[in-house]
Design goal:
By secondary structure, the protein is mainly alpha-helical. It has 10 helices and no strands.
């Protein structure tokens, strides 16, 4: 445990002055600022504004996760062609766990920043909020929890195949998430990891605001079970795969 904590701290320090950290700060701040500026004169209802913003975050996360996982993998590739991950005396399991925890930590902080900054501005600057700040904290946890699987997926894709396939799949995932928010997603979104964040946050917003629930809300429990089961299964599988991984060829 002590060595894992040391590795985690070291990985945090490694990213302190990199674009990786800037992306996790500037992206959520920019998103909140752009939507708040638009909502200052938009005629939409308060609930529709909040839901649209959170849905946009949910749809953007597959692409953003692909991007940050690619940045983390390229950083390791440039710093000795992954030897920092493969040859550290702390052991592969701890090294991989540290990298994963850092990605999840930064992701959680970025989503919290995006949700809370928007909620603060919407409530105290635009005076249009009626959901309360606890709603935005809960929303950030829902968005983060439903995307853990994507971090595991893109971690594998980047280490095995490289940046190009990961970003391509991430963009396709964002488009798929947006498409499955429509009626086309009914009965399907439960089994598509890219759609979990956007769908769960839509259901949560409707429940919190007292708005009429869509048919997808009746599938929320099943979707949560599928999401949790897939994520729990993916964790040990990813660790087992990393134990056998021997690096990536230089042309990937």
């Amino acid at each position: 445990m002590a060595s894992l904590l040391w590795l985690f701290k070291a990985d945090l320090l490694k990213n302190r002055r990199t674009p990786f950290l800037l992306l996790h700060i500037l992206a959520p701040l920019s998103a909140a600022a752009i939507f708040l500026a638009y909502y200052s004169y938009s005629p939409w209802s308060d609930t529709d504004k909040v839901q649209a913003y959170l849905q946009a975050l949910g749809c953007a996360l597959p692409t953003l996760i692909a991007l940050v996982c690619s940045m983390a993998a390229e950083q390791e590739a440039l710093a000795g062609h992954f030897q920092g991950m493969l040859a550290l005396p702390a052991g592969r399991t701890r090294v991989y766990a540290s990298k994963l925890l850092v990605l999840l930590f930064y992701g959680l902080c970025a989503v919290l920043l995006a949700a809370v900054m928007f909620g603060t501005g919407f409530r105290f600057v635009l005076n249009q909020d009626n959901l309360g700040m606890a709603f935005y904290w809960s929303s950030a946890l829902i968005l983060s929890g439903s995307t853990v699987f994507l971090y595991l997926l893109h971690g594998f894709i980047n280490l095995r195949f490289g940046r190009g396939p990961s970003i391509g799949i991430g963009i396709a995932g964002s488009l798929t998430a947006a498409l499955l928010l429509t009626g086309l997603g009914e009965g399907i979104w439960l089994y598509v990891p890219f759609a979990w964040a956007a769908r769960f946050i839509s259901i949560w917003t409707a429940i919190s605001s007292g708005a009429p629930l869509s048919p997808a809300a009746t599938q929320a429990d099943t979707g949560a079970l599928v999401c949790a089961a897939a994520t729990i299964l993916a964790v040990p599988l990813s660790f087992l795969w990393f134990q056998r991984w021997e690096g990536r060829s230089a042309d990937n």
